[in-house]
Amino acid sequence: MAKSTNAFTCTACGASHKKWAGRCDACGAWNTIVEEAPLSQGPGRGLGAAKGRAVPLSSLATTEAPPPRHLAGMDELDRVLGGGLVPGSAVLVGGDPGIGKSTLLLQGAAAFARRGLNAVYISGEEASAQVRMRAQRLGLADAPVRLGAETNLRDILTTLDTERPDLAIIDSIQTLWSDQVEAAPGSVAQVRAAAHELVTFAKRKGVAIFLVGHVTKDGQIAGPRVVEHMVDTVLYFEGERGHQFRILRSVKNRFGPADEIGVFEMTGVGLAEVANPSALFLSERGQPVPGSAVFAGIEGTRPVLTEVQALVAPSTLASPRRTVVGLDSGRVSTILAVLEARCGIPFAGLDVFLNVAGGMRVSEPAADLAIAGALLSAREDSALPPEAVLFGEISLSGALRPVAQAENRLKEAQKLGFSQAILPDSQKVEGAAGMGVRRISDLTGFAGEVFGAG
């Protein structure tokens, strides 16, 4: 009997399997493995005896100038792109439904078009009339952006090849389908094929392409992770629905720094840029209250000050609650364990709630000391000094470790009126004139000196 050549692929992570199973071994998801026909049969036994052509090789030394860039005039978008848009680059933009991806890209397309670029917007999810209504609401009806509504990949590529735009926006990659792939739109095979063809076209014709990608419930780009490897830049558009702030975060960029962020504010007429996000995130700080600590962080190349808020209350449950928003829950659990094991400060029988004000997400280990300060402040019902900022990494032994770019953190804090910094004893700081520096060697000393606990 002929052996089946069909493949089994996980729709969550894109891993390939020899046969169907209920659970994916790669990512652990259940009922996500589907059977798909291969894109091409290929030779049965290797490449055969025929030889290919020799690929020309060159040295690492080069005199080529850096790639030219086009500026949109939106400073936050240009910052995240690494200083402007590179011709021929492929950018993948992901985010939750309704977060504002289409609004951001429509405003970006209009900004680039008003600066002389030939921009085309292809919508696969909305009709042209819906996009026009959004453009009128945003005040972009007069922008020289050409609009189309299509999901057929062959027709889209033919249109782009005929029009030869400088910028093309595809909204979204999950709606496209190729007549050469026998799978439904949005499937792993269709997404992979569409992304490959569009990225190849961008490189061959020098057209910059933005691809909009849906995200899963875990916040990852839906479809195979190979799509993220195909493109040059991966941007995530983040934000909480209850907050007006939106964060455009770069997680991969071949033409600029990764982890760069751009901050926007959602208004009735679209997204407005936030030039000083630190002042915006701290704008609601009033009188000093227990459970509040200001963290001086670094996002990409930009120093950003955020407020870490904590609430500790007696629990009536057998297993106390641990609710964390905007922080790594595993990191918070580690800090709680260090406080109990190294400092003798128990949190058993207490509900712990942690939040980063303004909908910001903080992931760097330098926030450990601010998290510990907020927790101790809430537990001891004692407010931290209102003029102080905190940063430092906590090791499992309870010692405080230095972090990078301390000078930039202190300069941003000083600019916003803070006059004191609590940081690790081994932290080297230069150029901190005007800032009072309070050095702490370990977490036990921090709890004792600042709160009299331990």
Automatic annotation (TrEMBL):
Positions of transmembrane segments: none
Gene Ontology CC: cytosol
Example GO molecular function: ATP-dependent DNA damage sensor activity
Region entry Lon-protease-like, spans: 351-454
Sequence motif RadA KNRFG motif, location on chain: 252-256
InterPro entries, sorted: AAA+_ATPase, DNA_repair_RadA, P-loop_NTPase, RecA_ATP-bd, Ribosomal_Su5_D2-typ_SF, Ribsml_uS5_D2-typ_fold_subgr, Rubredoxin_2
Keyword entries, A-Z: ATP-binding, DNA damage, DNA repair, DNA-binding, Hydrolase, Metal-binding, Nucleotide-binding, Stress response, Zinc, Zinc-finger
UniProt-listed SMART domains: AAA
Pfam families linked: AAA_25, ChlI, Zn_ribbon_LapB
Database matches in PROSITE patterns: RECA_2
Domain named RecA family profile: residues: 66-215
One Gene Ontology term from the biological process aspect of the record: recombinational repair
Residues given in the record as ATP binding sites: G95, D96, P97, G98, I99, G100, K101, S102
Function comment: Plays a role in repairing double-strand DNA breaks, probably involving stabilizing or processing branched DNA or blocked replication forks. DNA-dependent ATPase involved in processing of recombination intermediates, plays a role in repairing DNA breaks. Stimulates the branch migration of RecA-mediated strand transfer reactions, allowing the 3' invading strand to extend heteroduplex DNA faster. Binds ssDNA in the presence of ADP but not other nucleotides, has ATPase activity that is stimulated by ssDNA and various branched DNA structures, but inhibited by SSB. Does not have RecA's homology-searching function.
Protein family according to the UniProt entry: Belongs to the RecA family. RadA subfamily.
Domain notes: The middle region has homology to RecA with ATPase motifs including the RadA KNRFG motif, while the C-terminus is homologous to Lon protease.
Protein name: DNA repair protein RadA
Organism of derivation: Paracoccus subflavus
GN (gene name): radA
